[in-house]
Structures are given as structure tokens and as C-alpha cells.
Amino acid sequence: xxxxxxxxxxxxxxxxxxxxxxxxxxxxxxxxxxxxxxxxxxxxxxxxxxxxxxxxxxxxxxxxxxxxxxxxxxxxxxxxxxxxxxxxxxxxxxxxxxxxxxxxxxxxxxxxxxxxxxxxxxxxxxxxxxxxxxxxxxxxxxxxxxxxxxxxxxxxxxxxxxxxxxxxxxxxxxxxxxxxxxxxxxxxxxxxxxxxxxxxxxxxxxxxxxxxxxxxxxxxxxxxxxxxxxxxxxxxxxxxxxxxxxxxxxxxxxxxxxxxxxxxxxxxxxxxxxxxxxxxxxxxxxxxxxxxxxxxxxxxxxxxxxxxxxxxxxxxxxxxxxxxxxxxxxxxxxxxxxxxxx
Length: 342
Hints:
Mean pLDDT: 88
Order of helices and strands: HHHHHHHHHHHHHHH
Distance between the termini: 42 Å
Largest sheet: none
Protein name: Terpene synthase
GO molecular function: metal ion binding; terpene synthase activity
Number of strands: 0
Pfam families: Terpene_syn_C_2
Organism: Streptomyces longispororuber
Helix content: over 70%
Strand content: under 5%
InterPro entries: Isoprenoid_synthase_dom_sf, Terpene_cyclase-like_2
CATH class of the largest domain: Mainly Alpha
């Protein structure tokens, strides 16, 4: 089956990228090696997390871009810990969450500095603490609180997936509700504020129109990512993918399930465009300061670029081809240093 062409918000292909991509790549590799969270440096480099950040946040300063790339790598490493190492073990994932929550709220808390038999590796916990320490210094208190809250939602979504994916008759709507949390784009969207050098106030975030915009952009990435990754996940026997869930629920062929996902993606992209169009007027009606409306519009224009960047990377990275190669016996899956030490 030919790779699915994923629609983009912008016609530019590939999207604009940062001149600091190589620096972000180097810093991300150094960070991962420092904390021992990768086993094969060459394989890790082929994932190209620095390139992902370069596409998603092209106007970021070099150090901010490197930080974004490290958070992107962190998100995919924890996703692998969840789906490919701990599996559908809700108890193990709850243990992992109990290790990471104190890191998010308190920094390098002694009780969160080491892994356990059923949770995250010590290195991944320590790497998370390091990321949190450095991110906190470049965010305002309200940005950091919002960022942490969204990271916790991502982790909670992973926990919910453990229970949901064991359901014998999982529906598209059930899957989509949990995928909304577990895809993690909420906290990556906060990083757009760093790229744009703005600090959106709570009065923007509480409006329905802003929530509509963010909800749509999250699901655009979720659907696009599922369309890219479904061959690897199907070959691995996984079911956490809308294409696979829809195929099973509605009795669709793979091609029909892909078309179904593409239709949902088109509707969701239109929902974002509608929210972006309504944003200035509805923020003004809510009494938001004109300067903050301008900042919100900046971020709203950057969100689709961020999503386009992530999806472009999804098609270029070795990540999904690697999982497919492993499932089909062409490569050996490496879990080095991701399992907690016994």
C-alpha cells in the first residue's frame, strides 16, 4: 500500500525550517546520552528530533529550539515506554506517573530521582527533571503551570489508554476522547509562546474560541500521526490507532479506514480554520486586551505551522519505518536503558 498523502494547512512543502536545526539535533543527542536514555546513538540520531523542532518552531532562538527538540524526544521516548515497554500494564504506568509528578511539581525531588521495577528508568526520570529545571527558567510562572498541567494530562491519557485498549469493542469515539489527551500536543502548543516571545494570559485560555482552536489542532496532529503510523502499528499488533479502530468497528478495509480518517482530518482542519477566523472578534467581545489579542493571533497562526512541521517530520523520520522493520523482522528492536533497572 502506498504511503498516504497527509493534507497540510500550508502549501509550502517542506515547511520553513530553522537555521539552528543541526545545533538542536546535537544538543538533543548530548542530553539523551548524558542521562543514558538511549542505547544506540546512531539509531537515536536517525529519529531526527532536532529536525522536527526545526520544522515545528522555525523562528525559535537556538537554545529555545534545542529545548523544544528535547521535549519532543522526551514525548516520543515516554510514548515508547508506554506502548512498547510497559505495554497495557496500568499498574506499571501508574508507578511511572507517581515518579514523574513530583518532578513536574517540585523539580529534583529525592523520591522521584530513581526508577523502579515497574516504572520509568532512573535515567528518564532524571532527564525529565533536567528538562523541567531548564524550561522553568525560560517560562513565566503561569506558562510553566500551564505547561506542567498539559504534561500531566498527557501522562493521564497514557494511563487511560492502558485500560481502554483492553476493551474488546473499542469505538472510535472512545479512542478519540483518550487520544485527545495522550497525543501530547497541548504542551507542545505552549512552546509556540516561546517561539513567538509572548506570554498569553489566562483570559485568552479560558475562552471557548481558544479552546476550540487548540482542541482542533491537537486532533489534526493525532489524526495525521495515526495515518502515518498505522502500517507499523498494525504490523506490531497494536490497536491504538484510529485507522485500526475504525476498521475493526465498522468492518472497513484498510483503504476504507484510511479514507474515513482522512475525512475526519479534513473536518477537523476546517474546525481550526473557523476558530482562527473567529478568534479576534470573540476575544475582543470577552474584553481581552488588544495587545493580548495580537499575541493570541500570532500564536494561532503558528499552531498550524507547528502541526505541519510535526507531520512533515513524521514522514521523514526513521521512527515509524523502524517500528515496521522490527515487526517484519528486518531490524531488531532496542529497548536499551528504557526498562527500569532491577
